[in-house]
Specification:
alpha/beta, Spore Coat Polysaccharide Biosynthesis Protein SpsA, Chain A, eight-stranded mixed beta sheet, three-stranded mixed beta sheet, 13 strands, 18% strand
């Protein structure tokens, strides 16, 4: 573990007890942090264990964010675009600032770099349009999940995909954002798995109120405001569960705790700010990479509780559709490319093992031929970014990285 450096621009002085880096991408509802801090205190979870990193933009009131952290008495940092650029410069990593796309939810990757550099062992993603349920120990439950030992149900299907909303799908018929259309109407089987302590490396909490759907499914549900007519409650979820090995699932970063070890295999793919205008699949595709890694490394992703309340603000469903369309065909196939990728050997060292899996996926994407799919070159672009992600982490660890590849990745041909 790298030695943690005390960072300037804190909301309150960091404590030596801080162990959980809470990453909040936000441009609207940053005061969600108040609710999460209140939940921790109401349930006796020590807020000295939490360090908040707000990833935002220069047009937001960053002073108000810092004042909020100070008023709450919690440690934290606020990073707009200029602060992120300065962070890369201060760490001698300006060649890698392209890894963090502008004005994109995928900027959560910056939080991962910060966590890695500062030596935090645990991370937690929270979206700013969520709130904890008052009767749930939000942070405590995530920490319990990461330390889970015992039996859990594991789902598998004949499509190699598990619907995280599938426990009540016969009533609501919902599939989450990123679930391939070709994998719908799957036949699911259930088994029981013994989980060893330490095997759970990610805890995905699910959501009540507005389900996390893509634009096509929102339109089919009859909603033009980017939300959904069908809403979910705690009753839609049964036991917490796993996706069986060799099966994929959608991983949403709005409510997700994880161990430091997964960071090399958890890059949030470079959406929105790219020549193909592909967006909205950053956490979905990072989840595919993570699932491939945990399957190969004998780890687990825990799914279910703690639930959060998702209060997605109204917006044009057609705007979301515009962002999703360039990547829809790729989303039907990218998981197959990732599933076929396998390193020649898996090192015993944990960090090296995750890097080996990610490197194999990066090579499969960067060197593959995807001309049959709409915007297939974007997968080559993603592969180059994955290579640079690994090199950036290596540089943070004091290693000598190879020359930067992705900054000059080929853009799509135009008719000009």
């Amino acid at each position: 573990m790298t030695e943690r450096r005390e960072a300037p621009e804190t909301g309150a002085r960091p404590t030596v007890d801080a162990e959980i880096c809470v990453i909040v991408p936000t441009i609207r509802e940053w005061e969600c942090v108040r609710d999460y801090v209140a939940n921790a205190r109401d349930h006796g979870f020590e807020t000295d264990r939490l360090h908040f990193v707000l990833v935002t933009e220069g047009f937001c009131d960053t002073d108000a964010m810092r004042e909020m952290l100070t008023g709450l008495g919690v440690s934290g940092r606020v990073f707009d675009g200029a602060a992120r650029d300065a962070w890369f410069t201060d760490h001698g990593l300006s060649a890698y600032d392209h890894l963090i796309p502008a004005a994109s939810h995928a900027q959560t990757s910056f939080g991962l770099l910060y966590l890695w550099a500062e030596g935090y062992e645990l991370g937690l993603f929270i979206d700013d349009d969520t709130r904890p349920h008052d009767d749930v120990d939000f942070f405590g439950r995530h920490m319990s999940n990461l330390g889970y030992e015992g039996e859990l149900p594991a789902y598998a299907s004949d499509e190699q995909w598990v619907n995280v909303l599938g426990q009540n799908v016969d009533d609501h018929g919902l599939y989450p954002r990123g679930y391939p259309y070709s994998a719908m109407d799957e036949t699911t089987t259930e088994s029981t798995v013994d989980v060893d302590r330490g095997a759970v490396v990610a805890s995905q909490g699910l959501w009540t109120n507005v389900p996390d759907l893509d634009a096509v499914r929102i339109l089919m549900d009859g909603d033009l405001q980017g939300q959904a007519e069908t809403r979910t409650t705690a009753d839609d979820y049964g036991e917490d569960f796993l996706a069986a090995r060799g099966n994929y699932l959608t991983v949403c970063s709005m409510n997700l705790a994880f161990r430091r070890e997964v960071v090399p295999a958890f890059y949030q793919f470079p959406m929105d700010d790219n020549p193909w205008a592909v967006g909205r699949f950053d956490d979905i595709w990072s989840g595919l990479l993570l699932k491939r890694a945990v399957d190969l490394l004998d780890r687990r992703i825990y799914n279910g509780r703690p639930l959060c309340r998702h209060d997605k603000a109204p917006r044009s469903t057609f705007g979301d559709l515009t962002n999703e369309v360039p990547g829809l065909e790729l989303n039907e196939h990218v998981w197959e490319v990732i599933d076929d990728a396998e390193p020649e050997t898996i090192p015993e060292d944990t960090t090296a093992a995750y890097r080996a899996v990610t490197s194999a996926v990066a090579d499969a994407l960067a060197d593959g031929s995807f001309d049959d799919w709409e915007n297939g070159e974007f997968l080559n672009y993603c592969g180059e970014y994955l290579r640079d992600w690994l090199d950036c982490l290596a540089a943070l660890d004091g290693e000598e990285p190879r020359p930067v590849a992705a900054r000059d990745a080929a853009a799509p041909a135009t008719d000009d």
